[in-house]
Write a structure and sequence with these properties.
- There is one protein chain.
- By secondary structure, the chain is of the alpha/beta class.
- It has a domain at 118-338 and 348-354: Aspartate Aminotransferase, domain 2 (3-Layer(aba) Sandwich), CATH 3.40.640.10.
- The protein contains 14 helices and 19 strands.
- The longest helix is centred in the last third of the chain and has 19 residues, at 363-381.
- The structure holds pyridoxal-5'-phosphate (PLP).
Length: 461
């Protein structure tokens, strides 16, 4: 078979040797990062200077005093003050294989030594073709028809692209349904879909959205009725004006609130009877349940028109059915992803699918129940301080001090100082949540993280 120059280049023994040396060096150095470590006092001054500069040039301080050095080991990450922390928030759900994973680094090297930094509209490399194929095949394996895949650079852009396809198909309908307290991103469009007034303060209105109350487990039947009625009321108020319904099946930014199949099916039925497209936003939940896609977990395969993914997928994407294909000119992007990013996405998604993470007995379920067991123990021991746990799979959350926002913030800050990265989510109640690097975490890591959580709870009055 004819070979390209690239086939020869990527198989060149010198590259193999160079990569072997890099991996050896990585192993040796990251082998020193094996546990939580406090900051080195000798680095304090330079670190404070760095943080100050960062705040000055970016126009505001960072949430955490976090500047990484560029190396870590699984769930551990080294900061430039010399400290080592457990990363149980992973850039709000991005570094699923933890830090400095040898396989991810190898994939990134392949991307880095390929011809261009970025891939985009006129020029995509073969890795992009592999990536759209794996997304498409995995999404459609149980009967879903979202076989077309448009790659993009952020979750918000994936949603923007989905909205454009839906509006174009449903023209002139121009309203959308969304869930109360949902998060869809912060572009000018998505800021009006995300249900948080502060995130759109001062912005001109772009999209009219009608918010539907999210599923409430404590009132299963009642919450279905409430939501269906809310949809119907809006449709009576604005007849024929709804183009789509964006559904965040597990509300991540709101604190890991989990929906329900029967609830979604009831709403989807109304959508289908009224020519309203069903858009599932999996930017946060992708690869975090026992199924790769959360619409598969909720068995909504036959009902989804468009699905968006991000974060864990490394490269974001909009997957859509043939009948939502955009007309020429609607979609195109200079950047759909960097070469390294696309190579890493291929590696990581292949691992997720083949590495024993998914399924009822997969690693995601096992780590979830281990973590859950610890948080249940803490809830029993400190009922006045902790409630929960909440969430599903790799999305775990708890409430501290009755969900008070200020206390949740001071808890996450203290937890950070004690060596664990978490984040707050939602309001009324505010939860503390964890998006752990499933592909680099084991039960011992969770045990240690929970010890630090307990210590932090004890330090809070
Ligand atoms: C459900 C959901 N949709 C969209 C987004 C936006 O993604 P990005 O921040 O990559 O634009 C997020 C980000 O947290 C999200 O959780």
């Amino acid at each position: 078979m004819a070979k390209t120059v690239a086939d020869g280049f990527f198989a060149d023994p010198r590259l193999k040797e160079a990569k072997k040396l890099i991996q050896e060096a990585l192993k040796e150095h990251q082998g020193q990062i094996t546990c939580v470590k406090p900051a080195d006092p000798e680095l304090k001054e330079s670190y404070d200077q760095l943080l100050k500069k960062m705040a000055e040039f970016r126009g505001g301080a960072l949430f955490y005093n976090y500047l990484g050095t560029g190396i870590g080991n699984g769930p551990f990450v080294e900061l430039a003050d010399g400290s080592v922390k457990y990363d149980f928030i992973t850039g709000i759900g991005v570094h699923y294989m933890g830090h400095s994973h040898p396989g991810v680094i190898d994939a990134q090297i392949n991307g880095a030594i390929s011809n261009t930094v970025m891939n985009g509209h006129l020029q995509q490399n073969t890795d992009s073709a592999k990536l759209v194929e794996i997304f498409s095949k995995e999404a459609c394996k149980n009967g879903a028809e979202v076989k077309n895949v448009f790659l993009t650079t952020s979750g918000a852009m994936a949603n923007e692209n989905a909205f454009k396809m839906i509006f174009q198909k449903r023209y002139p309908a121009a309203r959308f349904f969304s869930f109360e307290k949902c998060f869809a991103g912060r572009t000018l469009g998505m800021a009006w879909v995300t249900d948080k007034a502060a995130y759109r303060q001062g912005l001109p209105k772009t999209i009219d959205v009608d918010y539907i109350p999210f599923y409430c487990e404590a009132d299963h039947a009642g919450s279905i009725k409430l939501a269906v009625n809310a949809m119907k009321r809006s449709m009576t108020r604005f007849p024929g004006q709804h183009a789509g319904f964006i559904m965040e099946l597990i509300q991540g930014e709101n604190g890991s609130w989990v929906g329900n199949t029967e609830y979604f099916e009831a709403l989807i039925k109304v959508c289908q009877e009224n020519n309203i497209s069903v858009l599932v936003d999996e930017v946060q939940s992708f690869a975090r349940t026992r199924d790769l896609f959360s619409f598969q977990y909720f068995k909504l395969d036959k009902h989804v028109d468009i699905v968006t993914v991000g974060k864990n997928s490394q490269v974001c994407a909009t997957l859509f059915k043939d009948d939502h294909k955009p007309k020429p000119g609607l979609m195109s992007q200079t950047f759909t992803g960097s070469s390294s990013q696309i190579a890493a996405a291929n590696f990581m998604i292949n691992e997720m699918v083949t590495g024993g993470y998914l399924g009822e007995n997969g690693k995601i379920e096992k780590l979830h129940s281990h973590f859950k067991g610890h948080l249940e123990r803490l809830e029993k021991k400190y009922p006045e301080k902790v409630s929960g746990p909440f969430g599903i799979g790799a999305m775990v959350a708890m409430t501290v001090f009755g969900g008070d926002e200020a206390k949740a913030k001071s808890f996450t800050m203290k937890l950070f100082e004690n060596g664990v990265l978490s984040f707050m989510a939602g309001t009324g109640p505010t939860r503390v949540r964890f998006l752990m690097p499933i592909m680099a975490t084991n039960n011992n890591h969770i045990n240690e993280v929970c010890e630090i959580i307990e210590k932090t709870l004890n330090e809070m009055t």
